Amino acid sequence: MDAQKIIHPIPPLFDENSEKLILGSFPSVKSREAMFFYGHPQNRFWKLIALLYGENEPKIIAEKSELILSHNLALWDSIHSCTVTGSSDSSIKDVVPNDLSMILRGSRVSQIFCNGALSHKMYMKYIFPTTKIEAVKLPSTSPANAAFSLDRLAEKWKVILK
């Protein structure tokens, strides 16, 4: 598989009531195919968010959107475009960051949480100097982060409930 220059195809998910923004790094191949966040069936994001809020795990995009918005969350990614091979975070280069101003202006977002180290690194390097909102780095929900069980993820991620 060759590296490709890809522009983020998924619009941010937020509304005027969103208070907390969860940023991934860049959508995987499966997410780009699904045109929605965390589309890989092995990614534990949806299972984790449902667990934290005591909800059923959403299966379809409408349920996933409802889960996020009903808890005043917002979703997007740190990277607008990059050169990437498949879904490999370690292959990402030529990064252009996402502009979060549309979300920050159109919502009540005052807290930012990063799903994984790459998202946090990209946010702090490219976006934090503009937003001045410190981001909390959380362990990745990716299946590549096998060191973290769902319970361990939930323990770290419950900070978003505060």
Explain what the structure shows.
The chain is α/β, with parallel strands linked by helices and 162 residues long. It is 33% helix and 21% strand. The protein contains 6 helices and 7 strands. Helix 2 crosses helix 6 (150-157).
**Regions with little confidence, pLDDT below 50 for 5+ residues:** none
Q: Spatial order of the strands in the main sheet?
A: 3-2-6-7
In percent terms, what proportion of residues is strand?
15-25%
User: What is the CA-atom radius of gyration, in angstroms?
Assistant: 15 Å
The number of helical runs is: 6
Q: Provide mean pLDDT, rounded.
A: 96
| Biggest beta-sheet profile | 4 strands, parallel
Helix content: 25-40%
Oligomer: single chain
User: What are the secondary-structure elements, in order, as H or E?
Assistant: EEHHHEEEHEHEH
- Decide which structural class fits the backbone: alpha/beta
End-to-end Cα distance, whole Å, is 42 Å
The total beta strand count reads: 7
Shape: globular
